[in-house]
Amino acid sequence: MKLVNWHKIVEYTFNSLPEAKPLEVMVGEKRIGLVKKQDKILAYAALCPHAGAPLCDGWLDPLGRLVCPLHKYRFDPANGRNTSGEGYKLYTYQLEIRCEEIWVGLPL
Ligand code: FES
After folding, report:
1. Is the pLDDT of residue 38 over 90?
2. What percent of the chain shows pLDDT beyond 90?
3. CA distances from 63 to 9, 20, 37 (A)
4. Which residue among 39, 66, 70, 76 has its CA within the 20 to 30 Å range from the CA of 57?
């Protein structure tokens, strides 16, 4: 587990974040993607590792994989794995729910 600085997401709480809809928030100067999936919230880099498209304009497929809107590469938002096989890795962040608040851990 990496050492991180924890940041509270001020725009959403666990209950206000819509289910299965990728959203983008700013944490300091970082663009962070969030998606609620089966009662978990996952955090990842908001820009696609292939060519930088905004993943908040993408969607979750029926298997819960994040689909990039530009070239349709797919990523598992839980671990960043490029499930469509092109060999990219989506950066993911630690996330905790504390009394409905969403906290994201940014590496030190
Ligand atoms: S920019 Fe995301 S798949 Fe190409």
Report:
1. no
2. 95
3. 26, 11, 10
4. 39
Rounded to the nearest 10 degrees, how much is the dihedral formed by the CA atoms of 8, 107, 92, 104?
A: -10
Q: How far away, in angstroms, is 51 Cα from ligand 1 center?
A: 5
Number of domains comprising the chain: 1
Nearest-Å Rg of the Cα atoms of the chain is: 13
| Residue to probe by mutation, ligand 1, list 73, 82, 84, 86, most atoms within 8 Å of CB | 73
87 is in which domain, residue-wise?
A: 4-107
Residue 63 clears pLDDT 80, i.e. is over it:
yes
Number of Cβ atoms within 10 Å of the Cβ of 7: 17
Closest ligand 1 atom to residue 73 Cα is: 3
Task: List the CATH number of the domain containing 86.
Answer: 2.102.10.10
Ligand 1 center from residue 94 Cα (angstroms):
23
